[in-house]
Design brief:
Blueprint (H helix, E strand, L loop, with lengths): L6 E3 L22 E3 L2 H10 L3 H14 L2 H10 L4 E2 H8 L3 H13 L3 E6 L2 E6 L2 H26 L1
Antiparallel strand pairs: 1-2, 3-5, 4-5
Length: 151
C-alpha cells in the first residue's frame, strides 16, 4: 500500500509498452498524481526564502538583456571606462551609462571616478563565476545540439 496521502489517476493509465520514448512534451506532467507529505514538508523548509527568490529573479531578469551580457563580458576582462565600453558594445555613451546604472543598481558592477572619467568593474568574483557558469552551460548545450545534428 502506498504511504502517499493522495493517489489517483490523472488520466487513463495504460500498461507499459516497448514503444519508443515519448516526445518531451509528454514528459512534462505525471500520469498519476500523488503526494509524499514528508518530502514536501522537508523541502518546503529548505527552499529559498521569498525575498531572496524575488532578488534572484530580478538579477536574472537584468541579465536577460544581450547588451548587458556584452557589458559584463567586457568587464570580466577587467576595469574599463564608459567610453571604452561604449565603443566595445557599439552604443552611445549615454545608452551605455544607462545600462551600467541598471547593472550597478543590482550590484553586478561598481563604479569608480577618476577625475572626469568613470571606470566600471564587476562588483565581485561571484559575478564572474555566475557569468562563466552560464556561458559554460550555453556552450555545452550548443555542443550537444551540434552532435545531434551530425547524428
Amino acid at each position: 500500500m502506498s504511504r502517499r496521502s493522495d493517489v489517483r489517476p490523472a488520466r487513463s493509465v495504460t500498461a507499459p509498452s516497448t514503444a519508443p520514448e515519448p516526445p518531451a512534451a509528454a514528459l512534462e506532467a505525471c500520469d498519476v498524481f500523488h503526494i509524499d507529505p514528508a518530502r514536501v514538508a522537508h523541502l518546503r523548509g529548505a527552499l529559498i526564502a521569498e525575498p531572496s527568490v524575488q532578488a534572484l529573479a530580478e538579477t536574472f531578469r537584468v541579465l536577460g538583456d544581450p547588451t548587458r551580457v556584452r557589458l559584463l563580458d567586457a568587464l570580466s576582462h577587467g576595469e574599463l571606462c564608459v567610453c571604452d565600453l561604449a565603443t566595445l558594445v557599439g552604443l552611445s555613451e549615454s545608452a551605455t551609462s544607462h545600462q551600467l546604472r541598471l547593472l550597478r543598481t543590482m550590484r553586478l558592477v561598481k563604479a569608480r571616478r577618476a577625475g572626469r572619467m568613470v571606470f566600471y568593474a564587476l562588483d565581485d568574483r561571484h559575478i564572474v563565476t555566475l557569468f562563466k557558469q552560464g556561458l559554460r552551460h550555453v556552450e555545452e548545450q550548443e555542443t550537444v545540439g551540434a552532435r545531434r545534428q551530425l547524428a
